[in-house]
Amino acid sequence: MNTSPSPNTPPPPSPGRSASPNTSPSPSPGRLPSPSPSGAERADGPPVRLGALVPLTRPGWAEAGRHLLAGLDLAVREVNDTGGIDGRPLELLVRDTAADPERAAAAVDELAALGVTAVAGEYHSVVARAAAARAAALGVPFLCSSAVLDALTEEPTEWVARLAPAQSHGWRLYADFLLAAGRHRIAVATQPSVYWASGTRLLRDRLAPHGGTVIELDANALTPGALCDALAEHGATALLLLVGHPEPAVPIVKAVRGDRRLADVLIGAPAGQPEFAEWAGALGGDGAGIPFLRYLPERFGPLGERVGQELRERLGEAPSFVAFEGWDTVTVLASALRSHGTDRASVAASWPHLEVEGTRGPIRFSRAPGIGVRQWTWAPVQIVDRDPAEPDRLRVLRTG
Known about the structure:
Number of helices: 11
Shape: globular
Organism: Streptomyces cinereoruber
CATH topology of the largest domain: Rossmann fold
Structural class: alpha/beta
Strand content: 15-25%
Keywords: Signal
Helix content: 25-40%
Number of strands: 16
Number of domains: 2
Family: Belongs to the leucine-binding protein family.
Region (Disordered): 1-51
Protein name: Amino acid ABC transporter substrate-binding protein
């Protein structure tokens, strides 16, 4: 989940449109039309505005952004269909971050000037960190949907809350999974990023007391073939992809799968690249059997089942955990707005008092050790892969 983009990804195309079919043309790059608030004709008064940060163009992970926006937009429409916020419609102002921290910070400035009550969303951790810092500085509540970096802010703040579990929580579970599978000599193909460096450190700290080792391989300096040579030389039993998608993740997987010396090497992707259909389309059977983290319960309740079906209809495919994170984000904010008021300070003050039924369970925020923002402790975590016998089917390997 929340991978950093590859520095070699082609330049971004023109900004995409929001998931809503009832939109007007985007006025400028980075600014997207707001989904039309369904049910607004039954609500009175000026809209309550929410800003949404979403990666919709490269080098951002646009497929994740599309799922996140689908969840955000669906929840906005449901809020408006049930009377809005005390009779006022909820309006979503969407900005494409394209996985650029500076662009995200500038978007927070713009959205604050437009009078948003709060900012929501974002998928990439380094981008969310920039947005969180700017939101806290401006006194704008920011509910982070999907980014997991533990240090989302440098200092503790009451302005920021997060739904996604911290990276340390999920990645420690992933390290335990590797140990249980008998994988002790771990290689990581990595690129420069605070997120990847944090993941590598977490894995090393968890594996070392149990005799595990972590070897770092620079994916920018090594070709896929040279990386395979290094894996064979070090006798690695697992390779974890701490790199951007599709480049260089896809070429690395193809090279390792095609190297007879590495037939027994487990490929893993803790950040969640195999979750999305784009992965299966690019790799087919080679993309199966690669465990990754996702944040869904073992079984959905009635709410999760209903929202999942509606998201599937919107997306034309199975919704990822990111789409559910989007729906939960707006639902939490709507609860805060209805119970505590629509001024920014009141929303920020509401975090520790909220208890909201989300698609993946009851959502409450608290202070987790080492985390400087209000945190849902914890969203459900699974380790999943694509079934080698049926790559379109996901298998749950471990829960935590």
